[in-house]
Each structure stands twice: as structure tokens, then as C-alpha cells.
Design goal:
Distance between the termini of chain A: 68 Å
Oligomer: heterodimer
Helix content of chain B: over 70%
Structural class of chain B: mainly alpha
Largest interface: A-B, 29 and 40 residues
Strand content of chain B: under 5%
Radius of gyration of chain A: 23 Å
Largest sheet of chain A: none
Order of helices and strands of chain A: HH
Number of helices of chain A: 2
Chain lengths: 55, 252
């Protein structure tokens, strides 16, 4: 197991590459999802406001 | 015939339809992504033997190469959407175009950074100004250019058209990246998979690589759907279907 994490002496490079990759990929999910929440909230405010206007 | 085709095309590009389909597809795509990622990583990090020259450092290939492939693939998707947006003025194509840019930039960034982390132990340098690396860096700037230009223009329809032209002009860089290792002398190794004769990579190393490439491609589709969906809501905010959607959400 230690051998696996050691990566033949290249641990820093191999795990660094993998770690960096997953951080960037994660951002590509987290950011759009938080944007989605924001835009849905914006839409809800807009239409509620518009609906109140019609009544 | 042409008119039937264009009508079908427009329906396919209808916002409501797209929004619903995206929501239905996402869970399946997530499952597929997880499956490919787990099998690919296990194969690449555990099962595959160490390289006879590069030892375990070669395992960086399992993120580096899929990211580099995707960096070019996403660009092609972006440019084709740009062409569709310019010719048929389809709004959904404009949204796909602008949604591709941050994802493509991410893959390009991953390819460059993992390349540096692989280059240091193997070549003794984080970076060299050779054709492959430089053209990939230009690709990053093209993506950033698309993002910057789109955000700089207020009118989103005009912004999309400007960005589409930029994306189409930038296509010349793609064959340069691909053939750079053949056209110029370089430290970067030549292609081992996309060769006309048999790939010069062992099958135990190749299969995880293809699984990881599949995982990255599915990831691209997931992220693209998420971003395009946001772009769509943003642009169509006052429309009736968005109102319906908001009401449905409120009732849940």
C-alpha cells in the first residue's frame, strides 16, 4: 500500500497531477450548479414581482 | 425538404425541450461518468504495469492525454456551434458555443499543468517552448479570448456572433497542435494511440486510457448541459416557460 502511494518515487508528480485535475473538474460542476441556483432565484423574483403587478 | 429539415432543426433547438431533456439525461450521465472513472483509475493506477522507461511517472498519462484530447474536441464542438449560430441564427447553438469555452479552457489548463508535472521528472524541465506546448498554450488563450470577448459585449446576440467568428478563425490551431510532434523536432513524444498502424502501447495500459478518455468526454457533456441550461434560463428569464418552471419548483 505504501508502495502504491509512493509511485516509484514520483508520488508528488503523479498525485499532484491527479489532485489538480480533480480540483479543476470539481469547479466545473460546483460553479455551474451555484449559478443555476442563482438564476432560478432571480427568475422566481422576477415572475413573482410580475405576477403581483398583474393583480 | 429543406424547410422540413430546418423546422425539425429549430424544434430540436427549442429551449423548453432542451431544458427538460437535459434534466432527464443528467442522472444517467453521472452514473456513466462514475463507472468509467472508477474503472479507468483502477486500471491506470493499479492494474497497469509501470513503464519500462518512465516507471510510475507515466501514470500521469491517464489525466494528461484525455485532457489534451478533450481540449481539442471541445474546441471543435465550440467552432461547429459557432458556424451553426452564424448560419442559422439558432440561439441554442450560441449558448452551446459560449458554454464550451470555460470547459475547454479547463481541459487545456489541466493538459498544460499535468504536462509540466510530467515534463519535470522526464525531461528535466517544467516547460519548453516547442511546437506542441506552444500551440496548446495558444489554445488556452483562444478559449480565454472567447470568454473575454463574450463578456465584453453587452448585447448577447451580437457577442455570440463575434465569439463565433473568433472560434472559427482559431480552428487553424487544431491541426497544428495535432501534427506539431511530426512537423517539428520536439521533446514531446509522438502519438502512441492515434496512429494509422497498430497503437504502440500495451493493451493493459491502453484500456484504462480509453476508459479515462470516455470519462472525460462524459464529464464534458455533463458540464456543458449544466452551463447551457444556465445560459438558457438567463437569456429567457422573462418567458412563459421559465415562469412555469419557477411555479413547478415552488410547488415541489
Amino acid at each position: 500500500m505504501t508502495e502504491f502511494f509512493h509511485m516509484g518515487g514520483y508520488a508528488l508528480y503523479v498525485w499532484g497531477s491527479l489532485g489538480m485535475t480533480f480540483i479543476v473538474l470539481l469547479l466545473n460542476i460546483v460553479l455551474p450548479l451555484s449559478q443555476h441556483r442563482d438564476v432560478l432565484r432571480k427568475a422566481a423574483e422576477f415572475h413573482e414581482w410580475e405576477g403581483r403587478d398583474e393583480k | 425538404m429543406i424547410s422540413i429539415l430546418t423546422r425539425w432543426f429549430h424544434r430540436l433547438a427549442s429551449p423548453v425541450w432542451f431544458y427538460r431533456i437535459a434534466g432527464k439525461l443528467l442522472p444517467w450521465l453521472w452514473a456513466l461518468f462514475a463507472l468509467l472513472l472508477v474503472t479507468g483509475l483502477y486500471g491506470g493506477l493499479v492494474t497497469a504495469p509501470a513503464d519500462y522507461q518512465q516507471g510510475d511517472s507515466f501514470r500521469i498519462i491517464y489525466v494528461h492525454v484525455p485532457a489534451a484530447w478533450l481540449s481539442m474536441f471541445v474546441y471543435m464542438v465550440m467552432a461547429v456551434s459557432g458556424a451553426i449560430a452564424l448560419i442559422w441564427r439558432i440561439k441554442l447553438a450560441e449558448m452551446v458555443l459560449v458554454s464550451c469555452a470555460p470547459i475547454g479552457a479547463s481541459f487545456t489548463f489541466i493538459a498544460l499543468v499535468t504536462g509540466a508535472l510530467w515534463g519535470k521528472p522526464m525531461w528535466g524541465a517544467w516547460w519548453v517552448w516547442d511546437a506542441r506546448l506552444t500551440s496548446e498554450l495558444i489554445l488556452l488563450f483562444l478559449y480565454l479570448g472567447v470568454i473575454g470577448l463574450y463578456n465584453a459585449i453587452e448585447d448577447k446576440r451580437m457577442a455570440s456572433r463575434a465569439v463565433a467568428i473568433l472560434a472559427l478563425v482559431g480552428i487553424v490551431n487544431i491541426p497544428i497542435i495535432h501534427y506539431s510532434v511530426e512537423w517539428w523536432n520536439t521533446l514531446h513524444q509522438g502519438a502512441t494511440v492515434t496512429k494509422f498502424d497498430k497503437p504502440s502501447i500495451h493493451i493493459d495500459m491502453l484500456i484504462p486510457l480509453l476508459l479515462m478518455a470516455g470519462a472525460f468526454k462524459v464529464f464534458f457533456v455533463i458540464s456543458l448541459l449544466l452551463r447551457t441550461r444556465n445560459e438558457l434560463l438567463e437569456r429567457e428569464l422573462p418567458r412563459q416557460w421559465v415562469k412555469q418552471l419557477v411555479e413547478e419548483n415552488a410547488n415541489d
